[in-house]
Amino acid sequence: MKSVVGTVLFVLIGLVAAVGIGFYPTFSSAPLVKDDEQSGFDQEIVIKFSHVVAENTPKGLAAQEFARRVKEKTNGRVKVEVFPNGVLYTESDEFSALMRGDIQMIAPSFSNVSEVVPSFAVWDLPFAFMNNDALQDAFDGDVGRSLFAKLGAKNTVGMAYWGNGFRQITSNRGPIIHPSDFQGLRFRILPSKVIETYFHALDAKTDAIPFNDVYRALESGAVDGEENSISNINSKKFYQVQKYMTISNHSYLGYAVLMNKAYWNKIPVNLQAKITEAMQETTRWANQNAIRMNEERLEEIKRRSSIQIYTLSAEEKAEWIRAWRPLYSQYESILGRDLMEKIDELQKKYSGG
Questions:
Q1: In this structure, what are the phi and psi dihedrals at residue 323, rounded to the nearest 5 degrees?
Q2: Is the Cβ–Cβ distance between 203 and 182 less than 8 Å?
Q3: What pLDDT does residue 41 have?
Q4: Each residue of 180-236: pLDDT tens digit?
Q5: Exposure letters 86-118 (e unless 16+ CB within 10 A, then b)
Q6: Residue 341 neighbours by CB under 8 Å, 6+ apart
Q7: What is the bridge-based pairing of β-strands 205-208 and 78-83?
Q8: First-residue to last-residue Cα distance in the chain
Q9: Contact 62, 289 (CB under 8 A)
Q10: Quick one: pLDDT at residue 26?
Q11: What pLDDT score was predicted for residue 32?
């Protein structure tokens, strides 16, 4: 009998002690620690945003602006951590990391997305978009919506289209003015079948090289040239290892801002709305900022370097367009007739721009 009483007293003393120091959750007034996986993010939500370019580029600045706006609109409930310069993932592995859920957000180039969703290669078609107004129309309209609709099967949600700028050509082997000037040269490209095809159509060779390795490839002579937006040519100082640049505006470098679908679906609806609002505001700002930055960076390159810059005339640009036009029928079976018809409509709409 004494042993039973002793046991009961021991348990009661233990419970009283637990209440006193807060170890026993049933009696404690302290808040419980919630498991994000089970509770749907009751604590701070952290979105890790990985990208591969420098912070002082259109995409780098847009990522920072998005993080700022999300923090402000959610009163700190949602935190966006930005990892630039490929410190977490490179172009070759960021999409697979997103699909697995190892990262929550990325902003790959359209060319890199096309490796997973082939229709995204439509953005790489040479001279598909005549000016920035045509691009914004495509981003906001049927072209952009139809491409994002294809991402669902990849555990991915399309959040926005961010622009960087039209691509220009740089070279170390003479100015590139006519289609014949490409012959025999080797260019660094993004991993895009469309880009590969349009260089090969002009008898040029290509190497798909990660963005952060391009400077060394140009410096060593492993490739003769590359194509890029002016802001990237400036931020990575390609003008230091290239002698010639042609302002061609022949294709466009932009980014699809993507979120892991499973992660997005766990975020409470009210916070999804705030994140979406922040993304919409950031995108409007970012796409205007990209235009401004490319104009300013071109002037910086002219001041800082001795690279020879040549701007194609209307007649010379027409030569390039004629040389590449056969690619449109070649890629219709891959990109889809409906998508190609939408591009044709945009070209007619903005051909005078």
A1: -65, -30
A2: yes
A3: 54
A4: 999 999 999 999 999 999 999 999 999 999 999 999 999 999 999 999 999 999 999
A5: bebbbbeebbebbbeeebbbbbbbbbbbbbbbb
A6: none
A7: unpaired
A8: 98
A9: yes
A10: 28
A11: 32
